[in-house]
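Protocol step 4 of 5: obtain the predicted structure for the target chain.
Materials: sequence only (see below). No template structures provided, no constraints applied. The aim of this step is simply to have a reference model before the mutagenesis design in step 5. Sequence pasted as it appears in the construct record:
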Amino acid sequence: MARKNVIVGLDVGSTKIAAIAGQMSDNLVDIVGVGKSNSTGLRKGSVTDIEETVSSVSVALEETERMSGSPLQDAYVSISGTSVVAQNSKGVIAVSRADGEISDSDVARVIEAARAIPNSPNYEIIHVIPRTFTIDGQSGIKDPVGMSGIRLEVDALVVTASTPSVKNLTKSVNQSGIQINELIFSPLATAKFLLSKRQKEIGVALVDIGSATTSYAVYEEGEILSCGVIPIGSSHITNDIAIGLRINIDTAETIKVKYGSAFPEKINEKEEIDLSKIDKNEDTVVNSKYVAEIIEARLHEIFQMLKEALAEIGRDGMLPAGIILTGGGSKLDGLVDFVKDNLHLPAQVGVPLPELTGIVDKLADPIYATSIGLMTWGMESGSHFSRSPLNSNPAINGLFEKAKRLFKQLMP
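Step 4 output (C-alpha cells):
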C-alpha cells in the first residue's frame, strides 16, 4: 500500500549514498525507509562518471523504496565538494509602498538584489541566505516586514556551485528515477538536524568529516556566519596509513577504523597491531602509537585549515558552543580531545539518534546525519531561508518545530 506525503533526503557523497524516507504521522515523524550504498562515480563530491553514479544512487533508493513500501518520486538532495563556494553579498532597494511599510515583496526583492554578485559564468547560485536587514541605517533587524522605512538593505551569504557539478549531479539523480525538489549544501542540512537553536544563538561550528572533503558551517546569534569545504577528508588518512605502513588500502582502512586514534599521547609505547589478523598476506606487527601519529599529522592539517577559516571571520577560539563533529570521520577514537586541544574550544560528536518512530535502529551512525537533515529540510517544505506562504503559516511552522524538537541532539 502506497504511503502518502513521504519526504526523502538523499545524501550523495564520494564514498556512500544514504537515503532516508519519512512522513508526518500524528504529529510525529515516522521513518519509513532507509537505504545506503557504496558510492562510485564521484570524486571530492563531484560526479566524474554519470553511469556509475546513477547505479549507486539507484541501489540506495531501491532499498529505501522496498523498506517504505511506496514508490519514491522526488527528494531533497545534498551537494558538496570543492566546487561549492560561499561569499558575502549585500542587496539594496527602495521600499515600494508610498507609506513606507515594508512588505513580503520588498524582502523578496532585496534578497533577489543580493544575488547580483560578480560571479563566474560557470557557477550557479544554490542558496541566498539573508542574515540581517538594515532599514534607513538601522542595522541588526531580523524580520523587517511591517516596519517602515525608505531604504532596505540585506546582508546575505550566497552559496554557489560550479555549473558542471550541478548539472551532472542533477542528471545522475534524475536518471535514477527521482526528481530533485531542491539542492542543498550538505552542512546546512546537517546543521538543521544536529544543532539546537541555543547552540546557533551563542556560537557554534558544525564540522562534517567526509571521505574526500570536510565541510563546515558556522553560526552565531541564530544566523549563519560562514560555510565552506576543506579539500581533505578521512580517505586521506587511510591513504597516509597505507603509505606509512606499506600495506594495501583495505587493510589501512581496517586499521584506521578498528585501531586508529587521534591522540598518540594516550597510547602505550609498547602497544602493537598484528597485521596477520587483518590480512592473511601480512606477517608483521606495527606500533599503534606510530599509526596514531600518522593520523594526528593529517588531522592537524584539516583542523589548521578550519582554524584559519574561523580566524578569517574573527571566531578562532570564540565559539562558546564549540565544535559539533559529524560524518564518517567523526568516529575516530580520540578525535574530540584532539579538537579541544587544537582549536581551544568545546567539542563533541553529534550522534544522529533522534527520538523518532518507525525504523530508527539503523540511524545510530553519523553517516546518516546529512540525509536526516535533508528530510528535515523537506518537512519544512523548502528552504527556511526564503519566504513563502507555507513558511509563514503558523500552524505548519508549529508542527515542524514540534517535530524538530524530537530530532535535536542537545549538548549535555
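Step 4 remarks: DSSP finds eleven helices and 19 strands in the chain. The longest strand covers residues 123-135.
Proceed to step 5.
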